[in-house]
Amino acid sequence: MKLKIAVLPGDGIGPEITKQAVKVLKAVAERFDHDFQFEEAVVGAAAIDATGDPLPADTLELCAGADAVLFGAIGHPKYDNDPDAKVRPEQGLLNLRKGLGLFANIRPVKAYPKLIDHSPLRPERITGADMVIYRELTGGIYFGKKSTSEDGRSATDVCTYSVDEIERLSHLAFKAAQKRRKKVTLVDKANVLETSRLWRKTVANLSAEYPDVALDFLFVDNAAMQMILDPTQFDVILTENMFGDILSDEASVIGGSIGLLASASVGEKSAMFEPIHGSYPQATGKGIANPVASILSAAMLLDHFGLTREAAVVRDAVEESLHLDVCTQDLNKNNYYSTEKVGDFLEGYIIEAGNMRLNNENLSLGQMTII
Ligand code: IPM
Ligand code: MG
After folding, report:
1. What range defines the domain where residue 357 resides?
2. Distance (Å, rounded) from C-alpha 228 to C-alpha 160?
3. Domain end call among 234, 261, 288
4. In angstroms, how far is CA 191 from the centroid of its own chain?
5. Span 50-64, pLDDT tens digits
6. Which of 36, 49, 64, 256 is the most exposed place for a label (fewest CB within 10 A)?
7. Are residues 160 and 293 in the same domain?
8. Residue 221 among the catalytic residues
9. Number of domains into which the chain is organized
10. What is the Å distance from ligand 1's center to 245 Cα?
């Protein structure tokens, strides 16, 4: 398959982790005889520095013309504590989502058996947790009208949703549930918010088209608690933009590291793949960032184009790396590998078709050429 992939490394650790994902995709292309072409562009703080604009027109154009976008991370501390900043790196990401019409953000979360002990949550609570969050990505309070009064003493963010916006995401969530454990949980705040009541009504109506899928509802405050108390109860979580943002960071605790969580953002024409973590500025350039979230995002890219065998090999490679403790510092404090080395291991595994005889002994003896 021929694919044109726009690569937007972005800020902080974005470039280092994206480099590993590109390496992995090149390994997949080599092993399975695909033609993947990569083209890079700037976004976020890096783009503000270069052009004054967090999403330069050239970047948007490249992404719109590509089959897929691989996105790194966005954000820089110099903007975080400056509420008066006129341009912010995050606008680059938000404008990209809006500009490409990426209305569905899909965030799978699971507890890897090998990493159960890394989670601060008790093993018996998280064992078997396996869910996917369908977050609405181009509407709600993120994109409503914003204003600050002239005297600067009040500010407003408007939250609006339409039936169409709710329906197009909900169809994807129900279809995903049909292929999983057939349960959708709508998370809202329908006891308080008008938009949430519209979500509830719309999703309840639409669920009649999916009689094989069970639908239940949770208020977001309760959902936040249930996520920690009993995450195994969730299969597909369907929710609006801001609730999805918050719940997915919370859910990442189940996996043991936010450095593992991947996501896909899809629309009618475009698709973008990005880790859910941020730019982790303190780690920039140190070679300690976990590239796995970016690499698993690349696996979601492969799945998106029906390359399921290829995606499975990438996931196998990741599982094998976890199994053998070929991990960055966040997962293995005492004997860790650099961002680059983890990428090299995965690349080698993919190219050699998983035929390598690996064990901790020959790894530590340095017998592996790829380590
Ligand atoms: C995410 C991030 C973004 C969001 C930020 C960087 C704008 O937190 O993708 O979850 O809030 O959507
Ligand atoms: Mg977030």
Report:
1. 1-102+267-371
2. 29
3. 261
4. 29
5. 999 999 999 999 999
6. 49
7. no
8. yes
9. 2
10. 6
